[in-house]
Amino acid sequence: xxxxxxxxxxxxxxxxxxxxxxxxxxxxxxxxxxxxxxxxxxxxxxxxxxxxxxxxxxxxxxxxxxxxxxxxxxxxxxxxxxxxxxxxxxxxxxxxxxxxxxxxxxxxxxxxxxxxxxxxxxxxxxxxxxxxxxxxxxxxxxxxxxxxxxxxxxxxxxxxxxxxxxxxxxxxxxxxxxxxxxxxxxxxxxxxxxxxxxxxxxxxxxxxxxxxxxxxxxxxxxxxxxxxxxxxxxxxxxxxxxxxxxxxxxxxxxxxxxxxxxxxxxxxxxxxxxxxxxxxxxxxxxxxxxx
Length: 291
Description:
By secondary structure, the protein is of the alpha+beta class. It has 3 domains: 9-66 and 210-231, Pseudouridine synthase; 70-206, Pseudouridine synthase (2-Layer Sandwich), CATH 3.30.2350.10; 237-289, PUA domain (Archaeosine Trna-guanine Transglycosylase, Chain: A, domain 4, Roll). The protein has helices at 21-32, 62-65, 102-110, 133-138, 181-192, 217-222, 229-236, 244-251; strands at 9-15, 37-40, 48-55, 70-78, 80-82, 91-94, 114-118, 127-128, 131-132, 148-163, 166-175, 196-206, 209-210, 227-228, 239-241, 264-267, 273-280, 283-289. α3 (102-110) packs across α5 (181-192).
C-alpha cells in the first residue's frame, strides 16, 4: 500500500534486526509515496528499536533532533573482542571472564557515567577525508579515529550471567547523541582485562520519542501513522507562541526580541509551526525556517 502522504511529519519506526537504517527509509518512502525522507541517527543492522524518520519539510528537523539524548538497552559480552566491537565482527581475542567479580564489573561500568572522551568504533559511519570509516576498514585500511566528547547521563546494570567462558551483562543507558554503545562494551572489557563486545542493542528512545510511540513496518503497512510537524516540534523543543506581528517577522527571517534559553520552536497564533529560533546576542535568530 502507499499512504501518498501530502503533509510533513515524523514516523517513529521500531526497526527490526538485520535491516539497515537506509533500507527502513526506503521502505517508508515507498509507503508514504514521497521522495523526501530521511532519518535521525543511524542504527546498525544488528540493532533494533526507535528510528525517527522525517517526511517532506520535517526532514529539516532531523539534524536538530540528533542533538537530543538517546536511550538504549544492551547486552555486553565480556571475555571476547571482535573486529567491529559487536557480534557481527570476527572474534580477535578470548579471555576467561565468567569468574569476574560482579562488584568490579559494576564499578567499571559506573566509571563511564558523566562527560567522557570516547574513541568511536573503527567501523562507524564517521567520515575520514570524505569517506566513511567503515568503508575504509572494508577496503583493508587501518583506521584510527580521534576521541570525541560524549555524555552518558545514566547507566544501569541489570544482571550478569555466565555465557560459556564469557560473562553477559545487561545494561540500560541514557546518553548524548554520538555515543557509541559498542565502544562502551569494548572499553569496559579492556579496563577489566578480558575484552568485550556488544551482542544485543535496542534503542528505546530518541529525545521525546520512545518505544510506546514506535510502529513496526508491518503496522505501518496496515496503517501509516505520522506525527504532524507541528506536533513533533512541540514535543521535541521548548515552545514560544507568537502574536501576528512576530509571526510576520519570522516569515521573512527577521530576528525577534525574545529571551530564549536555547533552541526553541516558534508558532503562529493559529498554531502553525513556523521556525526554530535560537539566542544570539541580545536577540533570537532563526536556526531553521519551515514556512
